[in-house]
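Notes from hallway chat w/ T.B., transcribed later so I don't forget. T.B. wanted the structure written out for a chain they're using in a teaching module, and asked if we could keep both sequence and structure tokens in one place. Agreed to drop them here.
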Amino acid sequence: MHHGTDTRSRPLWQEAAVILGAAAAMAAAANIEVPFYPVPMTLQTLAVTGAGLALGLRRGVASVATYIGAGLAGLPVFAGAKFGLAALAGPTGGYILGFVIAAAFAGMARDRGWTRSLPGALAVALIATALVFPTGLWHLGNVIGWDKPVLDYGLTPFIFGGIFKSLIAGLGAWVLARRSA
């Protein structure tokens, strides 16, 4: 069930432009640091969750896949202007995989109408953001060693920023759902 975004009537070039635009927003967001306590935050999870919430499952996942593909192809789109397979194999590579899961969940929820109420939109955004962390933490632990304080490095510093970004994404999704209803 799509709400106000029947893609079958859109020309292919418009679909491609939407997906490329969302991927470009992710690349920009990955390289924008916002001063935040205890660590600066990028806007990357906001862009990823936002893509799913705004574009739905199919186009949201396609935009994240395009973003990852651009990084693998050598464009400096990952946080810190990193790129390539080394970036995915490095300590933060699992979070990039988590972006696909987050966008898929957010998009599926949006397609099912779960973002039409403000509480629903906020819950979906919080869950989608949280879904970045399981693969991120698993990979981080495997790269740096499970004898290190993995949660202290890869989760705890990002909780408040993640909640803040989720509130923004959820509010945006709710506004979009109301406009297209």
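Follow-up for T.B.: The first helix runs from residue 12 to 30. Might be a good example for the class.
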